[in-house]
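Worked Example 4.2. Consider the chain below.
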Amino acid sequence: MKPSLLPLQRAVVGALLGAAAAVVAAQDSPHPPADPVRAAYDRADTDRDGRLSRAEAARLPTVGSKFEQYDENRDGYLSFEEYRTGFPVTVSRPGA
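Applying the procedure from the previous section yields the following structure tokens:
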């Protein structure tokens, strides 16, 4: 008589469902990212090279025609530090 794999299958399926639920819960979190400025920059950096091209920056309404103003070293890209100069306010967290 073959041993039943049913308990093992249930454990594996349960673990997979639990992991999937954790991923969904993290995506639906009501808490904003720790640094919304960084989050916006990272979303705009579509090629993930760590800098924003003029085309990538154009997707951000906060940059608009200020690209040249933010591009302090005139290399044609915005580093995060250059982008951050447009946001001199600090991010405060509720309860902090």
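Confidence is low (pLDDT under 50) at residues 11-25. The beta strands are 52-53, 77-78. Compare this with Example 4.1 before moving on.
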